[in-house]
């Protein structure tokens, strides 16, 4: 069978003809340097870049020849990527282990669209919640919703963790220029009491609104923080009925919300077909909406919808999430890349890498395939990153000259919200220089000439040469956009969501469960009573020894 013939989708991955063809092609690329690929093809930038609205993806600085993408696309077709994509958009229960649809895309559908889940159009439900959120946010923003002493709200404290925290934190920070001038947002996630204690020091009970955000409303950290916040409010002199004015909930679990003592009239719901790490578009986005207002939140959703439509309809070879997913897989499976950097050259995107860590690693950090068979190929890489230029002075050394291959995405806006002196030009010069340096590197001859120009020669010069050489040929994607506005941010986030989906499908994973986080939670519940004086249970001797020390102290 030739590599371009389609095997049945359940052919073991590494035995499929398309995989074998990629493996052969990878071997043929030994010794090929991207420097030479660029020298041979002045059209490479035009050929390997793609624009959607005001977002450009330049993927030319990758280890790709004209043969590579057709082979990767054959592989995608052989794994029925288009079929899986269509099933996701159509509301099929592709989250097999939980029997759920995966429909965060329905959350950004315009009014009037139809998305059926079990025969019911969910789009009107989505917009009913959005309208309630909008009305509530407007009341808070206009000072109509007031605290128990009649004062308008000045501070919003979102209490949630994981997907009920990272998306709202990241987007709220990214859209700082659009914030309401008289509102401050705070986020409490960690069960470490320091987190809530430090936030509570900054706010006034009379003017603070708490959002308790938890899909399940059973998450230990969130409930502990929520109880502490309520106790604090009452300890500040608020009467018991003040809770209704100062606490709202975002959840799929009305029963537990009521059990906590929040009036379900003050609850904003969502649905089990929204995964936690894909939920910022739902009521989980309430803190974002409060800070930027309903119109800007609608722009965020519209930006994501534009990417959804692109992903759903563009041919695979001109489809941004597909190309980014395939290129990422190319490095993980055929070049042994075990990590991957996301490097935003925009201080407002400081939390994007942390957000994407959950989105990517909780989705594709899996060791068995959809059928429960252990995989015999690498899956999700370790994702990390920091804003440029800070990262340049920290971990970029490893990316430039270290032994691991670390593919990286570089992101930057052409226009800044803060045109301060030459800062933005300096930032962009660094942004452009990094991907050029990673591509080209510096040869021995170039290093030698540079050292000679500095006046060195002989043994001294030769001893330094190997340290000054950069191999180059290190792959990057560039995501360049006009300005970090709500629409662009929505488009960018949806791009990464779909890229993660593409990789999950190609690795034959269920990207939408997260059983791997459960064992630690179970054991923490078992250890808690032991730390509170209860009898000790059987543990390995390390854990038992540590429990003893935590109880008895080290002094
Ligand atoms: O860490 C596991 C997890 O289930 C995440 O997937 C989720 O985003 C987070 O916990 C918070 O869950 P919840 O919103 O139910 O409190």
From TrEMBL:
<dbReference type="GO" id="GO:0048029">
    <property type="term" value="F:monosaccharide binding"/>
</dbReference>
<comment type="pathway">
    <text>Carbohydrate biosynthesis; gluconeogenesis.</text>
</comment>
<comment type="pathway">
    <text>Carbohydrate degradation; glycolysis; D-glyceraldehyde 3-phosphate and glycerone phosphate from D-glucose: step 2/4.</text>
</comment>
<feature type="active site">
    <location>
        <position position="393"/>
    </location>
</feature>
<dbReference type="InterPro" id="IPR035476">
    <property type="entry name" value="SIS_PGI_1"/>
</dbReference>
<dbReference type="GO" id="GO:0097367">
    <property type="term" value="F:carbohydrate derivative binding"/>
</dbReference>
<keyword id="KW-0963">Cytoplasm</keyword>
<dbReference type="InterPro" id="IPR001672">
    <property type="entry name" value="G6P_Isomerase"/>
</dbReference>
<dbReference type="GO" id="GO:0006096">
    <property type="term" value="P:glycolytic process"/>
</dbReference>
<keyword id="KW-0324">Glycolysis</keyword>
<feature type="active site">
    <location>
        <position position="521"/>
    </location>
</feature>
<keyword id="KW-0312">Gluconeogenesis</keyword>
<dbReference type="Pfam" id="PF00342">
    <property type="entry name" value="PGI"/>
</dbReference>
<dbReference type="InterPro" id="IPR023096">
    <property type="entry name" value="G6P_Isomerase_C"/>
</dbReference>
<dbReference type="InterPro" id="IPR035482">
    <property type="entry name" value="SIS_PGI_2"/>
</dbReference>
<dbReference type="InterPro" id="IPR018189">
    <property type="entry name" value="Phosphoglucose_isomerase_CS"/>
</dbReference>
<dbReference type="InterPro" id="IPR046348">
    <property type="entry name" value="SIS_dom_sf"/>
</dbReference>
<keyword id="KW-0413">Isomerase</keyword>
<protein>
    <recommendedName>
        <fullName>Glucose-6-phosphate isomerase</fullName>
        <ecNumber>5.3.1.9</ecNumber>
    </recommendedName>
</protein>
<comment type="function">
    <text>Catalyzes the reversible isomerization of glucose-6-phosphate to fructose-6-phosphate.</text>
</comment>
<dbReference type="GO" id="GO:0051156">
    <property type="term" value="P:glucose 6-phosphate metabolic process"/>
</dbReference>
<comment type="similarity">
    <text>Belongs to the GPI family.</text>
</comment>
<dbReference type="GO" id="GO:0006094">
    <property type="term" value="P:gluconeogenesis"/>
</dbReference>
<feature type="active site" description="Proton donor">
    <location>
        <position position="362"/>
    </location>
</feature>
<dbReference type="GO" id="GO:0005829">
    <property type="term" value="C:cytosol"/>
</dbReference>
<dbReference type="GO" id="GO:0004347">
    <property type="term" value="F:glucose-6-phosphate isomerase activity"/>
</dbReference>
């Amino acid at each position: 069978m030739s590599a371009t013939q389609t095997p049945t989708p359940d052919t073991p991955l590494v035995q499929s003809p398309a995989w074998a063809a990629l493996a052969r092609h990878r071997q043929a690329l030994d010794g090929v340097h991207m420097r030479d690929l660029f020298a041979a093809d002045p059209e490479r930038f035009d050929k390997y870049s793609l624009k959607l609205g005001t977002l450009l993806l330049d993927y030319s600085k990758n280890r790709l020849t004209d043969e590579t993408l057709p082979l990767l696309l054959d592989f995608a077709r052989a794994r029925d990527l288009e079929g899986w994509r269509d099933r996701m958009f159509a509301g099929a229960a592709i989250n097999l282990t939980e029997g759920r649809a995966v429909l965060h895309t329905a959350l950004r559908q315009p009014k009037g669209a139809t998305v059926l889940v079990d025969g019911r159009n969910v789009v009107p439900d989505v917009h009913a919640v959005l309208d309630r959120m909008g009305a509530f946010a407007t009341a808070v923003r206009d000072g109509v919703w007031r605290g128990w002493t009649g004062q308008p709200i000045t501070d919003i404290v979102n209490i949630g963790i994981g997907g009920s925290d990272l998306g709202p934190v990241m987007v709220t920070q990214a859209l700082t220029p659009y914030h309401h001038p008289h509102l401050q947002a705070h986020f409490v996630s960690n069960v470490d009491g320091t987190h809530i204690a430090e936030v509570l020091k900054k706010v006034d009970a009379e003017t603070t609104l708490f959002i308790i955000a938890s899909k399940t409303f059973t998450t230990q950290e969130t409930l502990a923080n929520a109880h502490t916040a309520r106790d604090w409010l009452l300890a500040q002199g608020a009467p018991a009925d003040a809770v209704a004015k100062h606490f709202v909930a975002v959840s799929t679990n009305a029963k537990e919300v009521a059990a906590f003592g929040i009036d379900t009239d003050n609850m904003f719901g969502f649905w089990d077909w929204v995964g936690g790490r894909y939920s910022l578009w739902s009521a989980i986005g309430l803190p974002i909406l409060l800070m930027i207002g309903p119109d800007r939140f609608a722009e965020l959703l519209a930006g994501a919808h534009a990417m959804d439509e692109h992903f759903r309809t563009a041919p695979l070879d001109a489809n941004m999430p597909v190309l980014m997913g395939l290129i990422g897989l190319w490095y993980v499976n055929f070049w042994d890349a075990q990590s991957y950097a996301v490097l935003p050259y925009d201080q407002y995107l400081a939390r994007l890498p942390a957000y994407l860590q959950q989105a990517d690693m909780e989705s594709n950090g899996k060791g068995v395939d959809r059928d429960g068979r252990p995989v015999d190929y690498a899956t999700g890489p370790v994702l990390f990153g920091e804003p440029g230029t800070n990262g340049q002075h920290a971990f970029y050394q490893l990316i430039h000259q270290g032994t691991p291959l670390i593919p990286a995405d570089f992101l930057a806006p052409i226009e800044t919200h803060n045109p301060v002196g030459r800062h933005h030009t300096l930032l962009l010069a660094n942004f452009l220089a990094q991907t050029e340096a990673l591509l080209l590197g510096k040869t021995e001859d170039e290093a030698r000439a540079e050292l000679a120009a500095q006046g060195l020669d002989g043994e001294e010069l030769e001893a330094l040469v190997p340290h000054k050489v950069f191999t180059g040929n290190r792959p990057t994607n560039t995501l360049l956009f006009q300005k970090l506005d709500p629409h662009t941010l929505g488009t960018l986030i949806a791009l990464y969501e779909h890229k993660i989906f593409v990789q999950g499908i190609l690795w034959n994973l269920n990207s939408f469960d997260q059983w791997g986080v459960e064992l630690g939670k179970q054991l923490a519940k078992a250890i808690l009573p032991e730390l509170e004086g209860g009898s000790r249970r059987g543990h390995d001797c390390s854990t038992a020894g540590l429990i003893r020390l935590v109880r008895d102290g080290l002094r």
